[in-house]
């Protein structure tokens, strides 16, 4: 029976995950390549989606009722979404060998899936496959759902987007400014270079949160306060933004990456603003909107063809990695190393 | 010209307000009794409404844009709502001397108001006047608006109410259980005695947050998690409740009294629950619902007459105070000294 490599969870981390030292978070193992049944396909993982949310599935003492994906068990492969190629099909009429699919492959070389649960992908000429994980994938759906449905941004709104150079944020900026036509879009990102890129995507301005002047800069750019905040980061930036919202302002709470590797999260101290300014905060998860995946990708693909949004190499950071380097590449998410979607391209 | 007493703001406090010492928060002064114009009435303050929100109007360095009532200026009378009696009317046909009204009298013996801005009160036989400030007043409107409109509680919901023995909380418990018919109502209060009273009002159970076992008690009583949380207190209880909400749970954010006297508020560390459980948090202020005042008071008065809700002496803590003791009586709010509405009855 052929064997394959897989990365399994070895220890649940309380701070920054590791792949070495006495208590490594992940461990490389060998396993048998699974065999598909007549309703299944065996796929080979080509491109891995790197998502901050994965960090939340490996926390210690997690109550399975409180996570939106099942927690990864110690000894099981690390959960991950990917673009994969069908290498063996239990039902070739339904899904041919060689087809490309989106699938929860986890950090394994090969995996089997029910064919009806797989999302087939048709390559588009001139478009790198990685974008099906980012600008035209689940990440895009996250941004679209959050800004259009969860907080219902309109032309009359000024919108602030944190993590604006990240995979979700960079789509939110474009959807808000170039599709919805929001009055003003203000990005927040971690370097001047990222900020200039976010402005190229359509943001009226982008502020570098690592500068000493960040708080003053944000206050200046949000003079008169803002209607909408799309929060990708939580922590101190969210806390500051609570003080910059207009009365009845709406906040889309998409993630709290700033706290994911902290054993003791930064607490929100400005919560009284929620009362005094009658703020609405809505947490959301893209999975609740997954039934719209096809429609939204079609709409965004059309917007790209019409030149309304950018879907080019600037929208992703593709890292060619040997299978052995998968965790290290994923960890780049927490170093702010990527602009746009961080994609792992598995190479021999 | 006749003179009168008034309490003015002397220093904006960063922690517990004081009336003595080197930097007293409030100062007793003498002023001229104002004279009403032909469109105004002069009223004498009889009963003062004591509200935690007043604390938020005297914070230092407040941005007037961020408060829902104008901040009190140093040297100006402390803001307060009251039940008052008309002692001189510029237009007796519109408002006769001797009428009772609700008015923003502040902490003054006498004050003038535009007649058309005053809410006249008709005493109800068998009902203490104080209830027009509490169970049948603005406090009731706050609870009604929050639980019925802001989070739209229904028969299918389990509802947790903090500050359940307070003026707003005790009305929320009754409205949720006895008017809406919520499946289960869980109160949180600060003594066992208060808890037993909250259960008498209709709560299925009430938990004492000052007990060492509070966290375990709350977890036990919210097994399976809850749909609705009416938050009167903020801080650590809100933080804990974020972990006890069901998916898509709704939180009405009414106030954060637990932080009002802290220079450094307790921060919320469990905000990620808002994302993972898709929570909705809505801050609100009763002033946005003030146009419904008459309707809601009529509905609650009817509910009281039908025996659905309790409006008796247990629903208020009336403290007879000389004018000189007004600040000390107000401060009882922060000692948990009241059950139901804390009303100051001014006596000679």
TrEMBL record, chains A, B:
Domain Alcohol dehydrogenase-like C-terminal positions: 168-300
Oxidoreductase found in the keyword field: yes
Listed GO MF terms: oxidoreductase activity, acting on the CH-CH group of donors, NAD or NADP as acceptor
Stated name of the protein: Enoyl reductase (ER) domain-containing protein
Pfam families associated with the record: ADH_N_2 (PF16884), ADH_zinc_N (PF00107)
Keyword match DNA-binding: no
Keyword list, A-Z: Oxidoreductase
